[in-house]
Structures are given as structure tokens and as C-alpha cells.
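ping. complex inputs:
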Amino acid sequence: MNANDSVPMVQMLSPEGDFAVPKNYAEYGSYIERLTEEDFLKFYRDMARCRRFDNEATALQRQGQLGLWIPAVGQEAAQIGSGYAVGHNDHIFPSYREHGVAITHGVELMSILKMLRGVNHGGWNPDETRFHLYGIVLGSQVLHATGYAMGVKFDGKVATGNKAEDLAVISYFGDGATAEGDISESFLFAANTQSPIVFFCQNNQWAISSPTASQTRVPLYRRGEGFGVPGIRIDGNDVLASYAVTAKHMDDAREGAGPYMIEALTYRIGAHTSSDDPTKYRSDEEVAYWAARDPLKRFETFLRRQGIGEDFFQEVEEAGEKLAAEIREATFALKTPDMEDMFKYVYSEPHPVIDEQLDWLKRYEASFGGEN
Amino acid sequence: MTNFADMAIAKAINAGLRKAMSEDSKVLVFGEDVAQLGGVFRVTEGLHAEFGESRIFNSPIAESGIVGTAIGLAMRGYRPVAEIQFDGFIFPAFDQITTQLAKMQNRSEGYHKMPVVIRVPFGGGIGAVEHHSESPEAYFAHTAGLRLVSPSNPNDAYWMIQQAIRSNDPVMFFEPKRRYWQKGPVNLDTPPQDLYSARVIREGGDVTIATYGPMVHTSLQAAEIAVSEGVNIEVIDLRSLSPIDFPTIIESVKKTGRLVTVSEAPNSFSVASEISARITEECFYHLQAPVLRVGGFDIPYPAAKLEEIYLPDADRILEAVDRSRAY
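pong. complex structure:
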């Protein structure tokens, strides 16, 4: 089914929901040991929240309420697990499908919907959430993440001896983006400067209609090797592996180990975006194979075996319905921005052309007497 | 008493960088070969010895990476000054400059300021191989979110680099490479003017020339020659290519009724084209002649043995001045 099946990867939770830390990956085990039951429940709650949000957004797009939707269905474990592994000072540079990571860092979900409705280009405060804006040009954001990490290194905020002060950067991108030169240049700049960054590649196996094999001849976790960036593959549908491996390498980065790459092997269950038709390029069997490896199902099985009762799952389900209703209502209530907004932030200092054109537009609009 | 120093343009930029780096520890200088060597034109000479590796360093030979990491450093609170070694090598960074650097402040609704300066030695006249003599400014002038400036003399070079570094918007700083060694007085105490304003550097009543960067010198030569023919040319050094200081040009054209633009860049779709269009809109009833453009031809920059023919010189400028006056 998957040409890369023979590649070793860190998996702690099997598709059947069996938990075990493989002996050769014991270094990651301690990161699971420190998790409490409340952490497990939080992981599940947010994965389910992400899925429900995603499905509702697809519905909103189908009803014409969003210009576009970018589903992350199937990638919740990779995102929620790694997102919660990011520390309280760390900065996150996402691509455009990281709704789950956004959830772990308190980004208003409506900010994402606003952007996809066409109200703005992503106006949340990246310094406050430490979750930077979505990067739409593939790979572009990874260089920004690398520059940020270089700045952290220059600031001396790595291996300070005080864990509360250290910080690292994580940058998300997909299998398709690895073909972009910006990713290779990021590896090089990060390795040369030994900056604190984890490159988190979600290999969801499809770049629109191109399979991962069109982007690489070697497993992606090895892409950084020639630049001096070691890597590992994890089962991206295993939230515990995603959490533990990311937490370990973020810790290492904060302590001065330099850059590291994690390839999370997952699967894009949905379309690339609402404009895509995946039935044209992939088989139902393939989708069914991966649906059986669903990240939520296996974690639910695990939690039930841990003794988590039906009440919890019922409560999560209800919370999801409540969220869906809320975002529907909030989406309907979104206002078209003022026309001034498109001129407002082009420059941070006054610019005669911008001022002049806005003045003209105002006069032009006013000439219709408010009737256009 | 005002302190003056005589220095070449390259040295003046060097002195300006040194001052900016001394005044603000967040100013970082990087690019290809800028450290120990001081850059291929020695513009950053001595800065590495003075400020050390933490403030000025060689980057890998990867222009997209240079600009992309500069964006990340700016997000972290730094004021990066990135050098692109030659005009013709800027294109691997085109995506990061136009889709990221230029748009970041807009995308983030003002949360991310982008105080990034990109230094670009530009223009021809040095007998170089391909890709070392180009004038790519129009590509960037067409992009909202960027500011473009170009000094033509040591005093402007010294002050404009400092003003560019202080700007919270991204500034592309086009250095007239064939004039790097041209000397002139630098006032070390007082900046001449605002970064984005043009300057009338020679007054005259017959024809206005609007020019910038390396062609300022050539335009002044043409103006001197014209005197012997009884023609008084007013020369405007634009200094800023985006935004363009139109009020200064308009005022001059209202006086002379004639405008010739001079640049090395190919004329079509250029800074000169924008000036021509705009002046036609703003000064239609004052114009005695159409705006004429003296520039490079719309061909790839030629091999060095032909560049003398390609580049505008005083005669080409005067030919246009004559045509303008003949209307």
C-alpha cells in the first residue's frame, strides 16, 4: 500500500489501539510517563474538536459561506500531539493546514474561518499566540522560522541553564513543500548556525494530486541529512508518538542540539482543498486502508481500555455539536471589512500613493450617494 | 562647526553602516562574502573586525535564504541589512521579497513590522560578465509594500543607508556600483533631507531631467555641455524610486514644460514609464512636449564590449533634450 512501509518509524499506539514503547525508541518513553490522564483526555478532546471544526467548515464552504476550505481530517494526531509538545516560550510557523496546532495554542478558530471566508489574510497576533500566520507559498514560512530561530540563538536564549528562558522554534510543512528550494535552504541555514528549530513535515502522501514519490526518492526524514539535519519518522496517526518525539526534540533544540527533522507519516483523508477532487487520482481502497488507521479511533480504543467511560465520549460529542453551532452562527455574523482596511497595513509609515488612492476611492464611492 | 569628510560612495555606505550598527545592537549585516572580505566591492570592509561574527556574518550562497531568514530575524526584533551580491543574482530571492517581505505587514494587519534593508549594487559600466550589470528596480517598484531608494553621491549614501535601516518598512537600497569610487563631501552631522524626497541638484529653466543612481552623474555632465549651447537643464535626483516624489517633479515641469527621464534600465514598463504616465496626467496643460525617456534598450544587458553603446551617455541625453525642445 505504501512504498515506504519498510522504513522504521516511531509508533507507540498501533492502529488497533495497543500501546507499547518500542525498545529502540526508549528515550521517548519518559515523555509519555509524565503525561496524566487529564493530558490524555485533553489530547482526545482537541483531536475531536479539530475534526468537528473541520467537518463543519467543509459544510460551510459547500453552502457558500467560505471561499475555500482546507481540510486536515486524518492529520489530527500529528498536529495535536506535536502542538502540545511545544513549550510556553516556543514559536510555531505553520503552513496552511495546521488547524489542530492552532487549537493547542489558543488561536481563535474564527480567525481561520475569517481568512478562508475572505475577510482578511490572517489577522491573529502572532506574538501573542506564538502561532504565526498561515504560510501559503509552499516552504516560504520555513525560512522565516529558521531566521527566527537564528535570532533566538543570537539572543542567547538557548541552553541558558534556566529552562524557563530557553526557547525553540517548530516549523510545519508538507511532503509537497519539501521539493521547494526554501526548505533545503532552511536546513542549510539552520544547520550552519545550529539554531534551535524542529522541522515538522507532515507527509500526508498527497500534494494535491501528486504522490510523495513525485517529490522524493528517499524517505523524507532523511532529506536533511546532507545538510547536517538528522531526522526520524514517526507514525503521524499516533498522537502519543507525535507528542513524545516532538517534545524530546524541542527539549534538545532548546538545550542547544541544533536543528532536527521529524517526518510524521499520515494521510490526507479529505481533499487538498474544497476545490479538489481526489477521486480522480487515488483509489477508494487506499482511502479505506488509511481510514482504518484513523488517529481518533485508535486513541479512543486506547482510552476506553484505560477505563475512560462512555460519559466522556458523550461529553466530547456534545461539545463538538455546540462548537459547530457556534462557528456557524459566528460565520454568518462575519462582516465584510471596511474598504479602508485593504490600504491600511500596506506600509507602516505614511505613503503618498496609498493615501492618494484611498482618498480617490472614497470620493468615487461617495459619488454614488451611497447607492452603489 | 559642521564636520565634513571627503569619501567615496562605497566608503560612505560603509561609514553609514558602521554608525547604524554602533547606535543599535539589533542591526545585523549579512550576505555573501560580507564578513572578512568586506563584500566583493568592499562596502562592508572592516565591519567584521570591529563588530564581530554576532553582528556581521557570511551567509550561504542562497539568496532566497538570505531574504527569508532576514524576515524571520525581523520578526524576532532584529533590523537585518542583507546584501545581494549583484543585481542579476537577486532573482532566487524574488519570491521571498515580493510574496513575503513586501506583504508580511499587510498580511499580519500591522503586527509584524518588516525593518529589513536589502542592499543591491546595480547598474552597468564596469565591464562585467552577464548578470553583473543589470537594473532590476522596476520589478520591485511594481510591488506594493516595498520602498526603493538609490543614492547618487557620498553624502546621500551615508545618510540614506542609515535612514533606510531606521525605517520600519522594507527598503531596497540600490547602490550605483560604477560610482562606488566617486568621492565627495559628507556632512557627518546633519542628514540632507527625508529618505523619500527628491532633490533639484541643478536649476535650469528650459528642460527638466529626472534621473537617479548612476545616471545622475551622466545627466549633470549633459547639463554642463548644454550650457555651451545656451540651454539650461534642471536636474532632479529622484533618490527614492518608490514612492517617487512627484510634487518635486511636477513643480519643475510646470516651470520648464519639458521632461526627459534618464536611467540605465530598459525603458519599457520602467520607473521612467511611471514618471512619464504620471506627469502626463498631472501636468498635461503645462507640457510643451511629450515626456521622453532615455534608458537602456529592451534587450538583455549586452556583453561588456557593447555596453558603452547600450548605456545612455551625455550625447544620448542631449539628443533627447533637443527632441524635446524641438516640439
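DSSP finds twelve helices and 14 strands in chain B.
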